[in-house]
Amino acid sequence: MCLYLLVPFFVKLSAFRLNPLLFYAITATAASLIYAAQVKRPIFADALFDAMATTRQNVIQQISKSAPNVKDQIRALDDGISRIEKSVKDFVDQMERDYERRGGYLGMFMGAAGVLMSQAFTGNYVFYGILSVMLYDTMSAVGGVMLGHVRIPFTNSTVEGALIGAVSLAVPLLILNGFNLGILAVPATAIISEAYGIEDNFTIPVTTSLVSMALGLRVL
Prior knowledge:
By secondary structure, this protein is mainly α. The protein has eight helices and no strands.
């Protein structure tokens, strides 16, 4: 998704009667609708399965009344169908939980909202916010899983993951802006936002964009 968020920096949006702010507003709106639909999906699924069970029981009761000689066979069939329904429902629930762990509808929505706010507050400095999410957030997670041992106080983040993420972000920042130790304030901000922010996909782009603007980094 981060690559998609960089589209305004590589595509002439005016050709489509768009500007970066409108582009990110549309993206955030779409992400919010997807998130809302996914949050409500379990409710819809439960309602569907409940309606199916109620309908099946009503049908079985009518058949049992009209043909009592096959009552036992009908009950056995009902038990079999009930087990199939339960298996399908458990499978759907498991798939939803797995997707939440792997992708995260909330993360997608908050990331889009964070980039929208960054664009509104800082203009094209949002580039550095997107870069921070793409590099720091990703590499700190990978580094934390592979090498992480020492926890940052009061968080689930690791020192090793934070350092790997910070280096991954600092290198392109230095390439784009030249050697300047002040640039290290951007990865430092990303570390704090990821470790202590309520939702890092939102806080990282907003805070790092603001710091980049304060530092006067190169605007692309």
